[in-house]
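Quick check before the chapter quiz. The format below is the same one you will see on the exam, so make sure you can read both the input and the output lines.
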Amino acid sequence: MISKFIFTLVIIFLGAIGFAQTEKIFVSNYPLAYFAERILGEQVYFPDIEGDPAFWEPSEEELANIQAAELIILNGATYEKWRFFTSLPESKVVETANVFNDHFIYAENEVTHSHGSSGEHSHSGTTFTTWIDFDQASKQAGAIKDALIDFTIGDATTISENFELLKADLSKLDSELLELTQGYSELPLIGSHPIYQYFARRYDLNVKTVHWEPDTYPGEDLWQELETVLADHPAKWFIWEAEPLAESVARLEEMGLNSVVFDPSGNRPSSGDFLTVMQENIKNLKPVFAY
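Here is the expected output.
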């Protein structure tokens, strides 16, 4: 019995050592993980999260790992809801979106709804999907670069060089979208979820949103709500955050709406990476702005 207890303690201790040696940095969503790994050239601690990381709640073990990290990189803009009921060593926390906090967008009177296992929540308050404005994404990556240098994690020269490569990739995405969307500011579009505010502002798009989940067929009340929106906002394109159900797509087509996916990639994709997901998003949007 004693030997089993000692063995368990050894496993826990080795796990903690492994975290300290190989994953010095915690990040709260996949875009930040991608940026940090590109810049640092090493793996960072981004937990396996089911659903939207914005509404994740860390376990006691996960919270202990976060608190033990040398650097805690957060999105900010109220993205991390779990921060409201946990304690973090603030001297190690960097909220990357704070570099443009005077440009935050605030939403009011948003409906409370659920995302599967994430439970009920609302999108009221500060909107937090900041990185699908690729200029803001570059600024967030810059905040990560600065933090790594300030905390002397990694070689400063390598970090700066890697950041410039990432910045160039993000700038290319930004330029492509600016060019693609130029002249379409009056084109009415529907977003499946209230996550496209920064995207719409940066690329001068006319997007109104509903509260639909791509993996759930909308109830009749949601279809009626969409009809009401379309009466004053005659969109022909419906932007989904993930691949929608075929039944939803078919009914939208009956209403004269085509479906397109622009995935914010808040969580780690099943294949590819942040850059390839965003490249695919831009490819998906090309038919929307083809006339």
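If your answer matched, good. The longest strand covers residues 71-74.
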